Each structure stands twice: as C-alpha cells, then as structure tokens.
Known about the structure:
Blueprint: E1 18-21, H1 26-38, E2 43-47, E3 62-65, H2 71-78, E4 83-86, H3 94-97, H4 101-120, E5 125-131, H5 162-180, E6 183-189, E7 192-193, H6 206-220, E8 224-228, E9 234-236, E10 238-239, H7 240-251, E11 261-263, E12 268-270, H8 271-282, E13 287-291, H9 306-312, H10 320-339
Parallel strand pairs: 1-2, 1-4, 2-3, 4-5, 5-6, 6-11, 7-10, 8-13
Antiparallel strand pairs: 9-12
Helix pairs in contact: 1-7, 2-4, 4-5, 6-8, 6-10, 8-10
The protein binds nicotinamide-adenine-dinucleotide (NAD).
Amino acid sequence: MTVSHPPIERGLRSDDLIVITGAGGFIGGSLARYFHDLGYSRIRAVDRKPLPDWYQRVEGVECLSMDLSEKENCIRAAEGAIEVYNLAADMGGMGFIEHFRVECLRSILVNTHMIEAAWRAGARRYFFSSSACAYNTDLQKNPNVLALKESDAYPAMSERGYGWEKLISEMFCQEYWAERGLETHIARFHNIYGPHGTWFGGREKAPAAMCRKVLEALDSGNLHIEIWGDGTQTRSFCFIEDCVLGIDMIMHSDKLIATPINLGSSELISINDLAGMVESIAGVKLERSYDLNAPKGVAGRNSDNTMIQSILGWEPKTPLRTGMEKTYAWISGQYADRKAGKRVVKD
Ligand code: NAD
C-alpha cells in the first residue's frame, strides 16, 4: 500500500548544520547522502571508523573520524549543530548482539555524552535510533507474532544487552525533553536493509547474509545453504530509502516529541521464505541445512504501523522483493570486487 505524505516542514535553512553520527555505517551514511541530495550544504558526518572504511563518503560533507564514547569528541561533534542525528552504535545482526552484549551495552557512553553535548550546543532537535530489540521479548516467542505496538516495550523485558541499552537511551531522550527542554525524537527501527550495509564479517543481518551465502554457493559450485535456526522464525524488513524518509518525517513532527515510534515494514516473512526469495532472484535452487545452535533471536517479530500511518501517513513504499533485488545486485558487485582484490566495505 502506498500512502502519500504531506511536504515535510523542517524549518531549516539550507546552511544550518546537520550532524549525523554513525555516518560511516549503513543508515547514517544513507542519511548523509539523503540530506546532501536535498540540498543541505552543511552536514557533519562522524564515525569512529577510519575514513577509508566508511560505507559511503558523500562529496561536500565534512567527515570526522572520532570515537564518540569520549565526551570531548561528542562536544566537538555537536559544536554549532542545529540538528543532531545519533546513529552511532556498536551493533550488528543476531550473530553480533547475542555474543557481544558488553560492546552493545557500552554504546550507552555514546548516547549519554552525545545527548548532553547536543543539549549544551543548543541544538534544536535530537534524533535517537532505537530498535525493535527494546520490546518485551516475552511477546516474541511465537513465529505467528502479533505485530509489536509502541506500548509493548513496557513492562520491560528487552533483548539482553543491546535492547536494554536502547530502552534506557530512549528514557534519556524523554527526560532531556521533560527536564531540559531538548526536543528529542525516537524511532524504533525494525530490520533495515539495502545497499551500502555490512554483508560479511560477522555483523551482517539476515537479508545481506542470505545474499552473500547464495553468491558463495554459486561461486563455489557447492549448491548448498546453511540457515541459522530452523528457518521458521519470522521478521519484517524495511528498505533503506523508506527508512531515511521516515527518519526525516519523525524528526520534524511536533506530534512525535520524546515519543518512541516504530519505523519498519509490516510485511512479515519467515527466514525460510527469505532464503527462497533470494534463490529465486539469483535463479538457483539450493540444498538447505539448518544450524539449530546458531544465534536466531526471537521466534517472531513484526512492526505494528498503526501509529506511524495515522500520525505521519508513512508506509514503506518498497516491496521486499524489489528491495532484495537491489540489495542482491549491490552485494553481487561487492562480491565480485572482493574477489578481484579491490577494497570493499566490511564492518
Ligand atoms: P552500522 O553498524 O552500519 O552503523 C553504526 C556506526 O556507528 C558504525 O559505522 C560504527 O563504526 C559507528 N560507531 C560505533 N561506535 C561508535 C563510537 N564509539 N563512536 C563513533 N562511531 C561509532 O549500523 P546501522 O545499521 O547503520 O545502524 C544505525 C543505528 O540504527 C544504530 O544505532 C543501530 O543500533 C540502529 N538500528 C539499526 C537497525 C538495522 O536494522 N540496521 C535496526 C535497529 C536499530
């Protein structure tokens, strides 16, 4: 379903400074490109990765390589900012967040220093990228999950490590608004995917991992794919272009101050069917095996989009098949480049 939305009233001048953290990563990099393409001329992109490792380097965007778990670096990053989009986090797919809970929890340093720095710098708005992992895991034990609505985060029983860190950082956003008047906006992302994201190395998520595994099978001639879990676990996946538009709309809605809101697709699919979709895009049928001991996350998770549809009229425009075709094509190019010894994005 395509829902049109009214023009976004940002109240921004084209030379107002927009700061994006985690901009060497997948969503932050795409957001920097999005605002650049809209004509904003002063964008500061910050990430701890060395500049050559950034997924996207957008021409004309100031790029700083700094560790934002350090307070002084957050102060430098926020200097002069009118808007701050905080997307920096130590994160990855289930393989990462189930094994590296301490790293995930330590992102609290980025979030506490960054919001304080944004407030001290007098930023007009602050965006925080939360996650569906903040939701109560007791509600996600069945693959035929009822879609999660915003109120389902409490009573709290988030994903250990990563999810709890997101939930407490959401609370920081709410209290900085309530006590200090910093206008904050919070999106709970549900599995964002697309070109220019991690596709190998251990942090990749299911859509990218599936594309890579199919390419590996084709390349090696071993027409086999291993799936994590029994493949019945269900998820929804939201294409990156829909996500960046959603971020822009959420950040500039007066109805969504300090109010966490889902940003994701409600098109549910099992991991088995996702594998089938990638096989069909690649034009191959693979023999499957299942690693029941691999990290597989909750049994089922979907996004209830009632709130975002009613407040913003936002709905993802990209069907999963279309988005997966674009993602497969991009990873295919990366795969070929890596094989030819060229530099490719990693993690
Ligand atoms: P990503 O890993 O591609 O990007 C995150 C970036 O943050 C990385 O480039 C990393 O180097 C940077 N970073 C980590 N620690 C840092 C530090 N101390 N200082 C500076 N930079 C640091 O991930 P992404 O998919 O682009 O996710 C962006 C945000 O959205 C994160 O907050 C993530 O938790 C959230 N999120 C993403 C998804 C998804 O499906 N991709 C889902 C839910 C939430």
